[in-house]
Amino acid sequence: MNSGDRVKVQKIWAGAAPGYGNPLKAWFSGYTFEGYEPGGKAVLVRTSTGIFAGAVIRVLASDVKPEVAS
Question: Domain 6-66 carries which CATH code?
Answer without folding.
Answer: 2.30.30
